[in-house]
Amino acid sequence: MNNRKEYLKDVTRIVVKVGTSTLTHSTGLLNYKHIENLIRQLADIHNQGIQVVLVTSGAIGAGMGKLGHTIRPETIPEKQAAAAVGQGILIHMYEKFFSEYGKTTAQILLTKEDFEDKTRYLNAHNTFLMLLSQGVIPVVNENDAVIVDEIMVGDNDTLSAMVTNLIGADLLIILSDIEGLYDANPKTNPNAKMIYNVSEITNEIKKSAEGAGTDLGTGGMATKIKAAEIVVASNASMIIAEGSVLNVITDILEGIEIGTLFQRTNLL
Ligand code: GLU
Predict the structure, then answer these.
(1) CATH number of the domain that 242 lies in?
(2) 141 CA: nearest ligand 1 atom
(3) pLDDT for 200-237, tens place per residue?
(4) Contact at 8 Å (CB) between 236 and 172?
(5) Residue 77 included in any domain
């Protein structure tokens, strides 16, 4: 079996997806310790010459806090209003933290249609590539404030995989509140073992993901496996790892065996 370093040595463009479970405390308020850890690492790998795209969740959550909702609103207009308020809060926060490291960010909000319509796909592709070539770190989310079911990607695990494909990135790192993929649900089965490398997404692997996963956020492990299928099909690799771990991203890129690696089919 090839070792990790071989899969990660020539990475030049990466997408990192961060979920609500990493960005917020159980109170729903922002977890600055995690956010600072994340941004410092992204700025550091950007300094190494790696192009970085961040896919972030948390708009609805952040908007709920600001608007004084204690429970998730039920009506679509209320949710979309919360997303519109929250997206502004998120982007303000990223802009502020990244600028402390001298980095420029850009906001890109996408819908499923942007991937399905050829002209829009090419436009989005060109915008990303222009930003990356100018040293900008694009910050992406679904356009929750205006989206309707028919044109919704629905979860940011899938969205981040589609973005990886759109920009031809080498690697997608999905940060979650779980260390990686286990062969059984670690919350209910004490014998569950972490799977460090997946060379093929078999039915057995899909079965391992059932029922496992995170308490917060939209996606569980199943959406992450679906994301891995999209990523591997475009000959990129994907890693699921725990977002709260100090230096998790920089350690991954040094080839340290952290999280679950879904291996690209052909090495670079
Ligand atoms: N786009 C949603 C938000 O920002 C999150 C979707 C997800 O967590 O997968 O609230």
Answers:
(1) 3.40.1160.10
(2) 1
(3) 999 888 887 775 544 434 457 889 999 999 999 999 99
(4) yes
(5) yes
